[in-house]
Amino acid sequence: MTAMLEIEGLEQRFHVGGGIFERMRVEKGRLRIPDRIVHAVNGVSLKVAAGEVLALVGESGCGKSTVAKTVARIYKPTAGTIRIDGTDISGLGQRALLPVRAKMQMIFQDPYASLNPRQKVRDIVAEPLLQQTRGRAARAEVAGRTLALLERVGLNAEHANRYPHQFSGGQRQRIGIARALSVNPRLIIADEPVSALDVSIQAQILNLMKDLRDEFGLAYLFITHDLSVVHHIADRVAVMYLGFVVEEAPRDTLFAAPRHPYTRALLSAAPAIDPAARKDEIEVTGEVPSALDLPSGCCFRTRCPFAWERCAAERPVLRDAGDGARVACHLLDEPQRDAP
Amino acid sequence: MTEALLQVEGLRTHFHTFSGTVRAVDGVSFAVGRGEIMGLVGESGGGKSVVGFSLLGLIDPPGRIEGGTIRFDGEDLTAAGEARMRRIRGREIAMVFQDPMTSLNPLHTVGRQMDEVLRLHTDLDAAARRARSVEMLESVGISRAAERLSAYPHQFSGGMRQRVVIAIALLASPRLIVADEPTTALDVTIQSQILKLMRRQIRERGASMILITHDLAVVAEMADHITVLYCGKVVERGPADTVLRRPAHPYTRGLIDSIPNPALRKERLNQIPGMVPDIRNLPVGCNFRDRCPRATALCAEVEPALQDRGSGQWAACHHPLDAAP
Q1: What's the angle, vertex CA B150, arms to CA B148 and CA B151, rounded to 5?
Q2: If you placed Cys at B140, which of A48, A81, A127, B163 could pair as Cys (CB 3.0 to 4.6 Å)?
Q3: pLDDT digits (tens, 9 = 90+) for A67-125
Q4: With a cut of 0.85, is the ipTM above it?
Q5: B6-85+214-315: CATH topology
């Protein structure tokens, strides 16, 4: 069976500005104007099976949203392949992408910025459908489907004629979900869909997304920084740091026995409401290095309490670590170093 | 019993807008003991930030403190004039805001902004002020502090900026720090560093803190006491452990249950249905009744008052969770 989504060796680099004078350097007596490049995603390979939820976790700047936007082909990847249901879409143009978008839709983080304030809710929800049918769909049919979708996500027919500003954040996110569902996709890319919401509303949206997944057999690529949300919704989890996947494992394996020092730090840093669940295993100091200037070797070595010479010399690759986990860390070879 | 450092009684802060009066804070009472961390919790619109601004006298028209008292070390701040408040802000009560980028002046160096606080609130000479600034930056974990004094806010990362803001707040050794969502804008590994830093600094100096946040997990890690706000009113307050383990108010219970808890392995979250009501148009009786599983006819008629549930826990509910249903 082909995976719903298969990413291989995905790389995304961005040239950033900075005027010509800012970039000017003199090297060996010659004037040079080097490009400034952000290495946002550095060779990420992931698979999401049909009906599966893969959570992509990490802190700001780790490249998780860039992966989401590249998979959705909002960005064109610098290198690597993206297969949706077996078709490589990494090089397709906008026109050729249209049928792909019937299989894959996106839900965005900010429910305020992701809805057009000048469109009525019915038009927002119907738009992907009209795009797919090039406007040839029967009006009554589109209207009927729009209402059915709104009802399914917990809104009603009366809401269809309103504008986005008349809704709260949670309701707007429901509208965004209805829009994504309108073309009957099989893969939903959700970029921090609940981060902007209050906790009681967050629970409502997570429950809704879970129900929809069971009902429609959706696969999710779920981007979030919140580990408790990950635990609630994911089947598998991939942890990103500085554009690399450092660990990927089934949810229960990852939470019960995290292997990579960064995963362990992330889990122990998360505040817990239950004092008994508090664990103080690893504490990282310092901050994430700049993606303009990646460290040599392992991306995490500058903050890792275990790092030694090999970590600076050689970049660890993601490899099998048992229990279905893949980990990119030299500690796998020298477990005796894993002591405080 | 010694008197609490801060005693807020029946605080009412209202905003008079064209579309009606917003009772953002409506009869809020709580106390903060000396050396204590008090967590002020609630969702957006609960009024928690307005409480913080009210304490510092930072409510601008169309907002106004309509009633109640704020007794800080015996002095009623609602009666204090602007000149007196200027001396209290920074020296007696300091504030840490959510967004470290907008609470620092981008046009001045960090050193100048720190120096200003010391110039206003102490008699130190220039050299002593500089030495104290360096010492304070070091104590919040900023290396090469002397050098960093001449850096501008944009040259720091988010976590470092929040450290600077905390250093500035601590400079004049205030007795109370009001921290409004101090780590909400930060990543989780940085958040844990900042929270540890704040707790240590508060404890070492014997200061008190009001920690305003929507994040119950952060409160669970930090606070001694908790006050839960809903629609501008206190629905529950008490010692942190008691409130989190045995909440009496259904809203507090709902907030706790809404957080995915890995230990419980639930398939579905116990969500609170519905939404926060429009604050300009609050229901009669209990504000939470439309979302509450225990609501009865009584809740629609009579607004529940805060009642003592024993061991310092108070809840405003006709059908509290520890009572027989």
Answers
A1: 65
A2: B163
A3: 999 999 999 999 999 999 989 999 999 889 999 999 999 999 888 889 999 999 999 99
A4: no
A5: Rossmann fold (3.40.50)
